[in-house]
Amino acid sequence: MGKFILRRAAQAILVILVATLLIFLATFALGDPFASTGEKAVPPAIAAANRAKYGMDHSLPVQYLTYLGNMVRGDFGIDFNQNRPVSELLAATIPNTVKLAVAAILLDVLIGVGAGVIAAVKRYSFWDVLVTVTSTLAIGVPAFVIGILLVANVSGWGPFPPVPRSFTVQVNWLNELILPAFTLAVIDAAFIARLMRGSMLEVLRADFIRTARAKGLPERTVITKHAMRNSLIPVVTYIGISLGVLFGGAIITETIFQYNGVGYLLSRSIVQSNAPVIIAIVVFSVVVYVLLSLVVDILYAYLDPRIRLS
Questions:
Q1: Residue in 94, 62, 61, 89 with CA at minimum distance from that of residue 75
Q2: Other C-beta atoms within 10 Å of 283: how many?
Q3: Region 272-288: what's the mean pLDDT?
Q4: Residue 50 backbone dihedrals phi, psi, to 5 degrees
Q5: How many Cα atoms occupy the beta-carbon half-sphere of 100 within 13 Å?
Q6: Is the peptide bond before 164 cis (omega within 30 degrees of 0)?
Q7: How many Å apart are CA 33 and CA 276, to the nearest integer?
Q8: How many angstroms separate the CA atoms of 231 and 117, rounded?
Q9: 233-274 pLDDT, tens per residue?
Q10: What is the reported pTM?
């Protein structure tokens, strides 16, 4: 198991290095952020001073190596618009996105795994049809449509705060999370329910399940102790991928709800062509995604030992 973890960790570091290089090159290809465009005429002297200030007067390899070295130390540069360290902006938004991602993934697991198990155990029943139809409908509706409908219908109603919320009004952080977390969870929970149902049906036909039942074990023990563990492998993989995306910032959902997270910061930075913030958020997303993939691989190997031996 130790060699397996070390091998996967080395692969993760290589992926991060290649990804940061590609992101840096892609951002460079967008052009000079200090060049005069249309009505935004920048005097040449000021443009040259800004390029020197942000190290853009060096060659591209030097810029990348400098950025890489600074990134390792947690220095992502200076925000073009507010002249603040990018690390400060990330520190203010990452905790909010983490709370949102954790809330959404908890809803995913509770709804998706529960619905998938019920549909598989009660195959072809009313509950199976209900889960299948509901999950198909949820998968077919884009997340932004669900978010917009929630904004339109529950604004100022019941226990929910007005949406989009006012930044001048303090709201309970738990209430603030409910609508965006539910919006993010709907589609993923539907995918998880479908995955769990299919995986459970396959496992329930396996020989070791028949053996467990032949031993006289209670049906609840057969389902929860034997069938569910072996059915969770594809679900764990999907949850890891989904969690990486959520930690990276669910751009559309956070923007619809004006949720002060990484995704909302990224959408504003793209509109403002704020390159240091864009690069930092995309690099952060890649690092989180790769690290979570590493954790998923380890869990995968734990659940199925054949993987680490292959």
A1: 89
A2: 19
A3: 82
A4: -65, -40
A5: 31
A6: yes
A7: 10
A8: 9
A9: 778 778 877 777 777 667 888 888 878 888 888 888 887 777
A10: 0.72
